[in-house]
C-alpha cells in the first residue's frame, strides 16, 4: 500500500508496504546531481556521496562497514546527473538499526580533511578507470557532444583538476546550498510497521534544516546538437555512439518512446541486435537506451566492432533508424514488444530495492505515484500510430550525433565525419 507524508520541515516520505517480503529498503534521495554544479564544482555531488561513508561523530569508516555487515544488509549510494541517493537494504527485523545508521551518516558525517585528501586519490583512480574503459569513455564523449556546454554534458565524476582542487569548506558550502529539506525525498519499500517507520523517520529527519535559507541555481533545458566527433585511440575495437532526441522523464509519450527504443536496440530480439550481431556477427555488444531527465531526453545506440567494419556497422544502424522512422512497426512486432516490456517491468519490481527506486523517482519527477497496474495499462494503450508519430519525431536524421573512438585510419576519420 502506497502512502505519502510530508514532515514538518518539508522532507517528503513516500512508502509502499509489501507484507509478503522479508526485506525493506530505505533511500534518501537529494534532488541534486552533476547538472547542478558550477564548472569549478564538477564532481562535488559524487565526491560528497563518497564522503558520507568516511566516518561520523560516533562511527569510523570501518565501524560503519562493520555495523551494516552485522545486520547482513547492504548500504550504498549513487550519483546521477540530477540526483544523489543514499540507501540501506536489510531484513525487516533490522530496520530500526539500519535507520539509525543511515541517519548518522546523513547528519553527522565528519568530512575530515585527511579523509578528503585520501578520497581524492580514490576518485582520481575512478576517473582513470573510465579513461581505460572505451565503452564508458565513448559515452562520456558522446554526452559532451550532444549536450554541448550544458551542465548535463559534464561527467558525473568531475574532472581531475576540479577533484584535485576540492577543499572541505567547498563541500560543506555545497551541501548547505543543495541539501534543502524541500529537495529531499525519503522512500521506503518492503515489510515494515507503518506507524513505527513514520515516527522514527520524523524523529530522525524532521529537524533537518541544512540549506533552509539557501537556493541553488535554476535548471534550464539543453539544446541538443548533432554532427560528428571522432577520436583516434589505440584500441582493439572502434566504439561508436549514435545519438538522437529522446523524451523527458514523465513525458506523455514515454511509453511509445520505450517501444521505439526496445524495437531499435533495447532487447535481444531488437532489430539492431538481430541484424548486426546475430545475422552478420559484426559486434558482440550492440544496444540502445533512453536517458530521461526532468526537462530533456536522449536515445543512444552503442556498438563496438573491429576497425574494418566500423563504417558497415554505422550504415546498418542508420538503416534501421531510417526504417523505423519511415515505416513504423507492424502490429505483431508491437504486440511482442509490449509483452516483453510488461514482463521486464514486472520482474524488475520484485525487490524492495527496485520498488524504493520507483517510489522516489515518481515523487521527484511527477509528484505522484504510478502503480504497476497503471503502468501496464499505459503500455497496453500504446498503438501503432502513436509509435510511428513518436519515431518520426525522435529519429529525425537531421538531429543525429555520431561519436567514434578507436584505431581509426585517416580515411575512416574522413568518411565517418
From TrEMBL:
Biological process according to GO: proteolysis
Keyword Hydrolase carried by entry: yes
Pfam families with a match to the protein in the record: Peptidase_M16, Peptidase_M16_C
Cofactor: Zn(2+)
Listed EC numbers: 3.4.24.-
UniProt-recorded Gene Ontology molecular function terms: metal ion binding; metalloendopeptidase activity
Domain Peptidase M16 N-terminal: 13-158
Enzyme class: hydrolase
Residue ranges of coiled coil: none
Keywords attached to this entry: Hydrolase, Protease
Domain Peptidase M16 C-terminal: 166-341
Similarity remark: Belongs to the peptidase M16 family.
Protein name, entry field: Putative zinc protease YmxG
Amino acid at each position: 500500500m502506497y502512502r505519502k507524508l510530508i514532515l514538518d520541515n518539508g522532507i517528503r516520505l513516500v512508502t509502499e508496504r509489501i507484507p509478503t517480503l522479508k526485506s525493506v529498503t530505505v533511500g534518501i534521495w537529494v534532488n541534486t546531481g552533476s547538472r547542478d554544479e558550477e564548472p569549478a564544482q564538477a564532481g562535488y555531488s559524487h565526491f560528497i556521496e563518497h564522503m558520507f561513508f568516511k566516518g561520523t561523530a560516533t562511527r569510523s569508516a570501518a565501524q560503519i562497514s562493520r555495523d551494516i555487515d552485522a545486520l547482513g544488509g547492504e548500504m550504498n549510494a549513487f550519483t546521477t546527473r540530477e540526483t544523489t541517493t543514499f540507501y540501506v537494504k536489510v531484513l525487516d527485523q533490522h530496520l530500526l538499526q539500519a535507520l539509525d545508521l543511515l541517519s548518522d551518516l546523513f547528519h553527522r558525517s565528519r568530512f575530515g580533511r585527511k579523509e578528503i585528501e585520501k578520497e581524492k586519490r580514490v576518485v582520481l583512480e575512478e576517473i582513470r578507470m573510465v579513461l581505460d574503459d572505451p565503452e564508458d569513455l565513448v559515452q562520456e564523449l558522446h554526452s559532451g557532444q550532444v549536450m554541448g556546454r550544458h551542465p548535463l554534458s559534464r561527467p558525473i565524476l568531475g574532472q581531475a583538476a576540479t577533484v584535485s582542487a576540492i577543499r572541505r569548506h567547498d563541500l560543506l558550502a555545497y551541501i548547505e546550498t543543495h541539501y534543502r529539506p524541500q529537495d529531499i525525498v525519503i522512500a521506503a519499500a518492503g515489510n515494515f510497521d507503518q506507524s513505527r517507520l513514520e515516527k522514527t523517520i520524523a524523529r530522525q529527519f524532521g529537524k533537518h534544516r541544512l540549506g533552509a535559507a539557501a537556493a541553488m541555481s535554476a535548471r534550464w533545458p539543453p539544446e541538443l546538437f548533432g554532427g560528428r566527433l571522432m577520436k583516434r585511440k589505440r584500441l582493439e575495437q572502434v566504439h561508436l555512439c549514435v545519438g538522437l532526441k529522446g523524451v523527458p522523464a514523465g513525458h506523455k509519450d514515454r511509453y511509445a518512446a520505450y517501444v521505439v527504443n526496445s524495437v531499435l536496440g533495447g532487447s535481444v530480439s531488437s532489430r539492431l541486435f538481430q541484424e548486426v550481431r546475430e545475422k552478420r556477427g559484426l559486434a558482440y555488444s550492440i544496444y540502445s537506451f533512453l536517458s530521461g531527465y526532468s526537462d530533456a531526453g536522449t536515445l543512444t545506440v552503442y556498438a563496438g566492432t573491429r576497425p574494418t567494419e566500423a563504417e558497415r556497422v554505422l550504415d546498418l544502424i542508420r538503416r534501421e533508424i531510417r526504417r523505423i522512422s519511415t515505416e513504423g512497426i507492424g502490429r505483431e512486432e508491437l504486440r511482442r514488444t509490449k509483452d516483453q516490456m510488461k514482463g521486464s517491468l514486472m520482474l524488475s519490481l520484485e525487490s524492495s530495492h527496485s520498488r524504493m527506486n520507483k517510489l522516489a523517482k515518481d515523487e521527484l519527477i511527477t509528484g505522484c505515484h504510478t502503480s504497476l497496474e497503471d503502468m501496464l495499462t499505459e503500455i497496453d494503450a500504446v498503438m501503432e500510430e502513436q509509435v510511428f508519430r513518436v519515431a518520426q519525431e525522435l529519429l529525425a536524421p537531421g538531429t543525429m550525433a555520431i561519436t567514434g573512438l578507436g584505431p581509426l585510419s585517416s580515411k575512416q576519420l574522413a568518411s565517418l565525419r
